[in-house]
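Re: the request from the purification team.
They wanted to know what the chain is likely to look like in 3D before they choose a buffer screen. I agreed to run a prediction and write the result into the notebook, where they can find it.
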Amino acid sequence: MPETTTLTVRISPETKAKLDRIAELTQRSKSFLAAKALDAYATRELEICEKIQEGIEDVKAGRVVSHEDAMAELYAEIEKANKKAS
């Protein structure tokens, strides 16, 4: 069995009732469901935070493209795709 640790959280009665119902329907424990949900949330939020940090580092290092240049490139690609479709 993988190593685990304990975390105590407070949730609303409504959230607990939902978790109870999901546990009943899926025949999984509330602990299993909560752990899966927290893992999915932590994974998603960590990725977002790390990408934001990468963006901040890119700005500090000068690795940026102006809005005008980005839009010009986008419009050029759209125009190219429209010509192919015609």
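For the purification team: The chain has a mean pLDDT of 96.
Please add any questions underneath this entry.
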